[in-house]
Amino acid sequence: MTRSVFEDGRILRTSDFVADQADHLAAHRTHNRTAHRWGIVRGLAIVDTGGEQVVEPGHAIDGYGRDVVLDVARTLDLRTFPLRGIEAIDVWLTYAQDRSMSDAGGVDRVRDTAEIEPKPATDADPRTPPDDASSTGSLPPDDPARRWPILLGRIILDLFDRDRKPEIRMAGRPYAGLVGSRVTAPAGDVWLDLGAETPGTLRIGVPGPGGGKPDTQVAVDDAGVHLELPLTVKGDLVLQGGSVAVLPEEPDPAPAAPAGVPAPAGAPAPVAPATPEWSIGHAADGVAHELRVALPPGAAGVSNRLVVGAWRDGEFSRSLVVDEHGTVMIAGNLVVRGHLQAASVQQAELSDQAKAYLAGIQPNSLLSLFAAPPAGPIN
Question: Minimal CA–CA distance to 133: which of 142, 145, 146?
């Protein structure tokens, strides 16, 4: 890319000024087509105003980097389409130039503008470049004859009811966008990675709880959304067909053998640790819908329990405990507002094993639940 160099005593010709403008224009259009995706920047909506279809003013950038500007609203002339039996019309925008001649022999002016072209609808992809787009060369073309159409929308006419309002569809409009791989805040404390380091992954880096250098705290890939920060939801959290799963913390990986040292003969291959889920989710079996709180099976000598309680004086106090075997323990009063039914009621003494089990959960507090109750009705 070149530019003019001016020096004292040099003669400036018309070609020098033309070349200087061409250099600036080429730089601007090269930026448009390489640092951005081509398409609609603002406006250019198709609207119906009292029975007429109008394209509103707006701005777009075509695939050659040229500014396509519609300064005023343009009314569409669709009268010939019903006569030809065409009911679906695509509206396209193309680059054009408006040249204004000087009245007193001065300098002519050229303004970037736009042409509106309604055409019979097709199934062509609006993002497909024109056939000659690959032969643009190093500099973007300035000739409006080099076309790069931009789809503005589709209009559907009712050929059997001319008084019916046409349907306007805005789907498929290509919009201009930023081309980049990483966005970093001026202070460097926050960044957004669009796949520069990990293709196909969106990553957001913010300082951790202790501050310091930003690290990946949010990542989005084909496996889902991965969040390394506390989540605060102000509103509804909706799960469609999924569940809330809590996985155990991954253990530290075993140290690798030093380079060049073979593994012992007969040593088992490393196996990935199992990670059973603790989950809350919806399930249905055709008879009833259930909100399930699922506990994984406990490890050897360790039981898994669902615990409901409250904080009292800075300590967590258990009120309801359900273990993986179905044993339910209540620390407090059981109030039944309705009927309490049982096939049989038997009074039994707690076994030593049951007492030890309760003592292991919360010493002395849950054992009192099984003391002899006072005589009287059950509330």
Answer: 146
Token pair 């913390």 is found at 249
How would you class 43 by CB atoms within 10 Å of its CB: exposed for 0-12, middle for 13-18, buried for 19 or more?
A: middle
Handedness of CA 336, 342, 346, 349 (dihedral sign): negative
329 CB-contact burial (10 Å; exposed 0-12 / middle 13-18 / buried 19+) = buried
Report pTM. 0.61
Distance CA 124, CA 167 (A): 20
3 state SS of 21: helix
CA distance 34 to 64: 9
Tokens of 287: 């008879």
Chain segment 275-290, per-residue pLDDT in tens = 567 889 888 888 899 9
* E strands present in 232-335: 243-246, 278-284, 289-294, 305-312, 315-323, 328-330
The residues facing 245 across adjacent strands are 279
- Would you state the structure tokens that stand for residue 334, as one six-digit string? 């059981």
